[in-house]
Amino acid sequence: MMTDAMTSRLRPVQPGKTTLVAVLDIGSTKICCVIARLTPRAEGKALRGRSHQAEVIGFGYGPSTGVKSGVVTDIEKAEHAIRSVVGMAERAAGLTLESVIVNVTAGRLGSETFSAAVSLDGLEVEKADIHRVLRAVNERSVRPERSIIHALPIGYALDGQKGIRDPKGMVGEKLGVDVAVISSETLAMRNLELVLHRCHLQIEALIATPYASGLATLVDDEAQLGVACIDFGGATTTVSVFNDGHLVYADAIAIGGHHLTLDIARQLSVSVADAERLKTFYGSVLPGQADERDMIAIQPVGATHDEAPGQVARSVLTRIMRPRIEEILTAIRDRMQATGMMDVCGRRFVLTGGASEMTGLPEVARRTLARNVRNGRPMGIAGLPEMAKGAAFATVAGMLIYPQVCAQEYAEPRGRGRLTGTDGYFARVGNWLRTSF
């Protein structure tokens, strides 16, 4: 069932109230934990859907081990890496976490759009009718091997009239709905849950990585007119398409920036660490006029310190990197064309993620995708350290925005009322009793 995902559904942030949120970004190259205080914004100063200002009070960051392409490959190494990063954030914030919001890239992330309709018999649309039509979608989208992460209503229709945002209180004979359903393989998510349980953390909610990246980097007009956001991660590249202000499509392919590093290491016969340094300092996917003359010193694998370093032209590096980038962009374009999403996304792509900061990438993307392209950075998060303000941390920023917009999603009502982290009602009452008596 749509609501039988292994995680509890996140309770939306209450308007006008301050709360704490803890998020954990488990990537293939880095793990990042952020604890933030969400405080209500002044009226008229927020981007649409963002009712709160996120102020970071705890930040932890470290290399990722035991995780490959978003999938847990070594449970002990992954546990150690997560404990280290979460501990760093907890010490900075001065509190202990019980639960976190976690991103999902693994498990062949995919999306489908489902439609359903129910009869109203000429009566007013009530909340129960909306739940009834969403439940009808739920029954059609269930698959035992996949768990649903998001069920986002795209739009309602009343008696065949589409484009209705909120049908509550309207009158009609038939209520229909289109829902974008994003799902992942259940077993991949179970392993993620298992690692976090070993760290004594509950999963408060799951969010698909491409959805989080889009929330952090897109402006309202783009999301309204149609846009695609490509997140170039370490070992995965994800894409999300927004139209009419809603997420309508998400996908992921298991190629990322780390594959470029491995290509350089193999072709030039250097260590992976040296290949990463060469990619960062000298790498470009667009040839320059002086590239044939610019020589770069390289240290071959196994060479002793007294040996003279080798040299390669910068153009060699470009020729190694460009085919891989074109492969990623072509794969995304072909998948989007196969699903009709190239028409839905309009004329604009936004690039984000750590590998998106490569020199020349926007130009190559513009040629390959035949669309307008810009680089996207996370917006609207205060208190992040300088190193975390770049495109590599877009997913983390989007996860902090998610509690403010998750009310749009369909979820069966639950009895639980605790908010993220340690800021729940009963936790506060318990703390007050312990300290007062």
TrEMBL record:
Keywords: Cell cycle, Cell division, Cell membrane, Membrane. CDD domains: ASKHA_NBD_FtsA. InterPro entries: ATPase_NBD (IPR043129), Cell_div_FtsA (IPR020823), FtsA/MreB (IPR050696), SHS2_FtsA (IPR003494). It comes from the Bacteria. Residues 21-217 form the SHS2 domain. One of its GO terms (biological process) is cell division. It is a peripheral membrane protein. It is found in: Cell membrane. The keyword Cell cycle applies. Pfam families: FtsA, SHS2_FTSA. NCBIfam families: ftsA. Cell division protein that is involved in the assembly of the Z ring. May serve as a membrane anchor for the Z ring. Self-interacts. Interacts with FtsZ. Belongs to the FtsA/MreB family. This is Cell division protein FtsA.
